[in-house]
Write a structure and sequence with these properties.
single chain, 239 residues, Rossmann fold, 2 domains, six-stranded mixed β-sheet, 9 helices, transport, P-loop_NTPase, ATP binding, ABC_transporter-like_ATP-bd
């Protein structure tokens, strides 16, 4: 059984269709990448999965259970975690306090268990030395690390990554990808939107291409990127 399933999910804003009959399955422990041009509906799709938007049609299921009507908080408690394209930490709190909030209120972790759990996450994401640093003053790489750590603090079974490698140098990107690979190796399913293709393909085993809210193709990364329609639409190369 798929851990996450979308069936014919559609969303319109007036005359603008941002998702049209989107269907796919994410297997337990799988890493699926999502690519597409700007405005293709990628972040909208994440909002439909997390409950920040409700679809006009279709359904979202987690472990075979329909969660289409659930709130974002309920979906988080059920095991869907998310990072945002622009990191959104609680800037006035410390790095450790950011994780503690996520663990207690997003992951439902007990007050007794949460401190050790958060410190372990800080070590795994390379943030242990910055535990007491105010989150609002972190440089970009560490803000991205914190965004990943906060999502993981909710104990997700599925984690949604929204352009988490964007804006990083190649070296910084490599460090972050190594952490994501470790998380994936531990069994967490990953759905990852990314324009930095070498980062994405270092982790995912399938790619899904979105264009104008529609699924253009799903398949093995090399085959997808070699497809004429993908090269034309995504890369701007005439077929």
């Amino acid at each position: 059984m798929a851990i996450l399933s979308l069936r014919d999910v559609s969303k319109r804003f007036g005359a603008l269709t941002v998702a049209e009959a989107v269907s796919f399955d994410l297997a337990p422990g799988e890493a699926l990448g999502i690519i597409g041009p700007n405005g293709a509906g990628k972040s909208t799709l994440f909002n439909l999965i997390t409950g920040n938007l409700r679809p006009d049609k279709g359904s979202v299921s987690l472990d075979g259970r329909d969660i289409t009507a659930e709130t974002p908080m309920q979906r988080c408690a059920s095991g869907i975690g998310r990072s945002f394209q622009i990191p959104q930490p609680f800037g006035h709190l410390s790095v450790y306090e950011n994780l503690l909030v996520a663990a207690r209120f997003g992951g439902g972790i007990s007050a007794a268990e949460a401190p050790d759990y958060c410190m372990d996450l800080l070590r795994r994401t390379g943030l242990a030395a910055l535990a007491d640093r105010q989150a609002g003053g972190l440089p970009l790489l560490n803000r991205k690390r914190l965004e990943l750590a906060r999502a993981m603090a909710t104990r997700p079974r599925v984690i949604l990554l929204d352009e988490i490698a964007g804006g990083l140098t190649d070296a910084e990107c490599g460090e972050l990808v190594a952490t994501i690979r470790d998380i994936h190796a531990e069994g967490t399913a990953i759905l990852w939107i990314e324009h930095v293709l070498h980062a994405l393909t270092a982790v995912v085993t399938r790619l899904m291409v979105l264009n104008f809210g529609r699924v253009l193709m799903i398949g093995v990364p090399d085959q997808v990127m070699a497809a004429p329609e993908v090269r034309e639409i995504y890369l701007g190369i005439e077929a």
